[in-house]
Structures are given as C-alpha cells and as structure tokens.
Design goal:
Chain A: It is found in: Cytoplasm. The complex is a heterodimer of chains A (293) and B (279). With 293 residues, chain A is an alpha+beta fold. Chain A contains 7 helices and 10 strands. Chain A has a single domain, classed as Aminohydrolase, N-terminal nucleophile (Ntn) domain (Glutamine Phosphoribosylpyrophosphate, subunit 1, domain 1, 4-Layer Sandwich), CATH 3.60.20. A 5-stranded antiparallel β-sheet of chain A has the order 8-1-2-9-10. Chain A has a 5-stranded antiparallel β-sheet with strand order 3-4-5-6-7. In chain A, a hairpin with an 8-residue loop joins strand 5 and strand 6. Chain B has 8 helices and 13 strands. The longest helix of chain B has 22 residues. Classes of the chains: A alpha+beta (293), B alpha+beta (279). Chains A and B meet through strand 3, helix 2 and helix 3 of A and helix 2 and helix 3 of B.
C-alpha cells in the first residue's frame, strides 16, 4: 500500500490557490464598469464562445478562466434565477442572492475537491442610478467582494484595474466607458510591455441598460460596436438591440436566427456577416479556455 | 426540496450540469411541485369550481399576426371577471392566448414564457417558431388528466416567424386540442366558447395580406360577433371603459394596443353596429 504523505491544511490550500490563480492568469481578461446609462461588460474574446451572458432582467454575468467551469456556473445562475422568478416574482430575483449561491458553491468546491475551479466571475446588477449598481466579484475560493463601480478579472487584473481606477467616471457616456474598457484591456499583453489597440473583432461587449424596462441585457457587436469604438458618436438606443427593434433578416444559409433580445443587429446588415468570424480551424479556439491563450 | 439543502452549501448538481435547456424539464428535477399536471385530482367532474376564460381570435397579416381576446371570465352562469387579460406576449416575437380553466391557463402561459426565455438565455439563440409551438403542445398534453375531469385549457399560439420557410408567410398561427394535438392554421383561427361565431365572422371578412390595422379592426369585429351570440364572451364595455386586449407581433416585436388605440377601434366598431347590428 502506498504511503500517504502528510500535507498540512495550509499547504493544501496554498497549492490549490496557486493552481487556480495560474489557470486564471493564462486566459484573457474581462472588465465590468458602470457608466451613466448602465453597466458595461467587456471581455477580450476572439471566439464565438461567450464569456458574458444575461442571467435575468437586471443581472448580467461575466467570467474568465476555464470555459467548461464557468459555463456550468452560468447555467446554474440562469436556472436559479428563473426558478426564483417563476415561483415568486420577477422583482424578487436579486444579484445578492446569486452572489451568495455562487460563493457557497465555489467555496465548497475549493475546500472539498481535489481540483478547484479556475474561474473568476462577476455578477452585475443594474440599478436606477450608478450609485445603486451592484458588482460582485466571486473568486475561485468562494470569496466575494462588492466592487465599487468597476472591476477587472483574469491575467494581469491588477494592471488593468489601475487603468480603470484612473479613468473611471460613473457619469461617462457609453463611448467613453467603452474606450476606457478597451484601453484598460489593451494596456497589458503587448510585446515588451507595449499597449495594444483592440478592435471590434477582439472584444465581446454587452450592456445592462438602466433605462430599459424588463430585460436590460443587450449584446453589442457588428456595426454598432465599430461605431462606438471609433468614439465619434454614440449609437441610437434602438440600435443597441432593442427587443422592439427590427430583428436581423433571416439568414440565407438557414442558420438559426438569433433573437433581438439576446443578440442584436441593425436592420441594414444581414445577420450572417455581422457575427464575429468563427475561429479559424487552424487556430485552436482556446480564447476562453484558460489554457495558454 | 430537502435535497436542495446540501450541508456544504453547494448548488445541487442538477443546477450545474449541462443537462437540458428546457425549463420545464429542469423543474422535474429541481422543483417538481411547481409543475402543473402532476397534482392528484379527486375523482369526478370539477368543471365549475374555477373561472373559465372565453374567446380568443388570431389573424395572420402581411406583417405578422394580430391576436385579440375578450375580457370576460365565467363560472357557470356568473361572470367571474370583467377585466381578465387572456392574451399575452410569449416572447419578443410571439403571442399566446388562453381559453378554458383560467387558473390552469395562466399557469401554463407563465411557464411557457419562462420556458422560451430560459432557452434563449441558456442557448444564446431563440427557438424556431415551430419549436415553440411543439413545446407548447407538450405542455398542453401534460394537462390531459385534468382536462378529462373538466379542467381543460386550450391555448392559441401565433407569432412572427424570423426564418419562415415561405417568405410570404411570416405570420404563423397554431391551434391545439386538449390531447396536445398541434395544428397550423391558415389565415385565422379562434378558440373558446365564442369561437364558432368569431370564426364565422372571420371567414366572411378575412382576406390574405391584410394590414395590421385592418386585422386589428377585424379582430375586434369578430369578438363583437362572438359576444353578440355567446353569453360567456364580453363585448366592448363602453360604460366601464373595458375593451378587448389586442396585440400584434411583427418584425418590430410584439405590441399591445394602447388604451387610446383600442378605444378608437372599439368605438368605430360599436358605431358601425349602431347602424347595422349584423356588421
């Protein structure tokens, strides 16, 4: 029988922490920040696999790390929110409730299992003003932090966070907030410490729009995102994927057409060309897997 | 629910696993008591214990669909409610109306709304119109036991099809039977106690390629005809300002006619009937 070597609990915890931190640091980063019109969620992501998602009416989700792990947490969040909203009322689903469930779950996984989850997630709940917005950061060990208006997750989060800290203004408009987010994400990862300029193909962007009744989550991609990134003008609210706005015309290739509620397109552009290109088969789609991307 | 209280505080496994994208299927694991159709019912007929919703009409237009419902709910010979709302958006591009036992119908409708939204959030895309109708048929089928004891509910489902097989047919209407049978209707359909009269009215007046405005007018006319001959259907109530709920689903999403819009249409219809009661 093999000898079981003694390892102190401190050592075990340290090893697991280090393992999780390394895994998270390998992936690309994400930032979440409040602005005048709501909460902006931006992830650096070249794949079609998503790091940002809608959870409920006023609640969004952003994650970094290992895709399969945060995807299962995302599903759990949507399921918990929908069960609660269905058995009580839509207004009874809160970000704090979800943050509590996530912290319990991640905490238990961290202490009980051999391998901790290599993820860091953000639960964002939009309020009627930037002061009432709630941002919760939940880390791999189940710690939860209530962040003041902005947060960065993933590799080199500290460096990204300091750019956000300097530039964050809760009264900023959407193009300004998006420019800051892109600048912060581009401030790391360049060759020899140089900054990078990220374009619309490298960013996954969504907002929780505080002015909207009902489901506040809107994805921004394609032409509206390019316009916003250029910063020359803001994009009309109806072009930000309103459920009441024109849906994308049916895709010619018979691909399922996405909903206006979870996706958005301007009517002038066909849906198929608006989507980010599917990852080149030659290039592993590892942007969100936390394994060397 | 005891199994939800894992002492470790972890969310139960069935929340986290890849599992299903269907909310109802998920509820069978998480909270089966929230699902309709699994409650034991005492033997015998129980048709008159709860209010019944009555007439719903749906009309396909050039731009999508229009659905309208009267506001009455009855219990036997009594009017249980004058202002019940039986037509609702199912999601951004589709509408659902219910006739039959109101309580079960409202539960079915709420569950269906969450079902569609849940799928959309989990999968990141919307179900196809046919997929939505099939899902609803399955949910109606689950109520068969209660239906056989008098607590039947039959929905009417209509929507703007985002990827239609025939580009000229963007408005789709589906009707159901209590056994969960699913039938796609051409042009128009009606359900509920006044449906016989509403359908007769629609048969004479319906033309393919109606505009949304004309279809709204036609829906209110058909509901008026139903109320004319069916005691369980309520007509426009001018004294209390209670008018039918009329909604449309088009490329621009769903829209419920505002109070002012529906008053204008209902007053025109009533004024027309002052001169010619038969329409």
């Amino acid at each position: 029988m093999a000898m079981q070597f003694y390892a102190s609990p401190e050592q075990v915890q340290r090893d697991r922490s280090e393992y999780a931190r390394k895994g998270i640091a390998r992936g690309r980063s994400a930032v979440v920040l409040t602005y005048e019109g709501g909460i902006l969620l931006v992830a650096e992501n070249i794949t079609t696999l998503r790091k940002i998602s809608e959870i409920y009416d006023k609640i969004g989700f952003a994650a970094v790390g290992r895709y399969n792990e945060f995807e299962s947490l995302r599903r759990a969040g949507i399921r918990m929110a929908d069960v609660n909203g269905y058995s009580y009322d839509r207004r009874d689903v809160t970000g704090r409730f979800l943050a509590n469930a996530y912290t319990q779950t991640l905490g238990a996984i961290f202490t009980e299992t051999q391998k901790p989850y290599e993820v860091e997630i953000c639960i964002a709940q939009v309020g009627s003003s930037p002061e009432t917005d709630e941002l919760y950061r939940i880390t791999y060990d189940g710690s939860v932090m209530d962040e003041p208006g902005f947060m960065a997750m993933g590799g080199q989060a500290e460096a990204i966070s300091s750019v956000l800290r300097e530039g964050h203004d809760p009264a900023a408009d959407l193009p300004t907030a998006l420019a800051l987010a892109a600048k912060a994400l581009g401030s790391v990862g360049g060759e020899n410490g140089a900054t990078r300029k990220l374009d619309s193909k490298q960013l996954e962007v969504a907002v929780l729009d505080r002015r909207r009744k009902g489901r506040a989550f809107r994805r921004i991609h394609g032409q509206p995102l390019i316009t916003l990134l250029e910063g020359l003008e803001t994009v009309a609210e109806k072009d930000l994927g309103d459920v009441d706005a024109a849906p994308p015309p049916p895709a010619a290739d018979g691909k399922p057409t996405v909903s206006a509620a979870s996706e958005q397109d301007v009517a002038s552009k066909p849906a198929a060309t608006d989507k980010p290109e599917a990852a080149d088969p030659a290039e592993p789609a590892d942007g969100v897997n936390g394994d060397g991307s | 629910m005891a199994k939800d209280f894992d002492p470790s505080g972890r969310v139960p496994d069935y929340y986290v696993n890849a599992g299903t994208s269907s909310f109802t299927q998920f509820l069978t694991h998480a909270s089966p008591e929230l699902l309709p159709g699994r409650r034991p019912l005492p033997p015998g007929l129980s048709a008159d214990i709860a209010p019944h919703g009555t007439t719903i009409v749906a009309i396909a237009t050039a731009e999508g669909v229009v659905m309208g419902g009267d506001r009455r709910a009855t219990m036997g010979n009594l009017i249980a409610s004058r202002d019940i709302e039986k037509v609702h958006p199912a999601d951004s591009y589709s509408l659902i109306g219910i006739a039959g036992t109101a309580g079960i119908g409202i539960e079915l409708m709420r569950l269906f709304q969450v079902e569609l939204e849940h799928y959309e959030k989990i999968e990141g895309t919307m179900l196809s119109t046919d997929g939505k109708a099939n899902r609803l048929a399955g949910m109606v089928r689950g109520n068969l036991g209660a239906a056989m004891q008098g607590l039947a509910v039959v929905p009417l489902f209509a929507g703007y099809d985002l990827s239609p097989a025939d580009p000229a047919k963007v408005g789709r209407i589906f009707s159901f039977d209590v056994a969960g049978g699913l039938y796609e209707e051409t042009g128009y359909d009606a359900i509920g106690s006044g449906s016989l009269f509403a359908k007769s009215a629609l048969k004479k007046k319906y033309r393919a390629g109606l505009s949304t405005d004309d279809a709204v007018r036609l829906a209110v006319e058909a509901l008026y005809d139903a109320a004319d001959d069916d005691t369980a259907t309520g007509g426009p109530d001018l004294t209390r300002k209670i008018f039918p709920v009329v909604m449309s689903a088009t490329a621009n999403g769903t829209h419920r006619l505002t109070e002012a819009e529906i008053i204008a249409v209902a007053e025109q219809v009533v004024a027309g009937r002052m001169e010619n009661p038969g329409g």
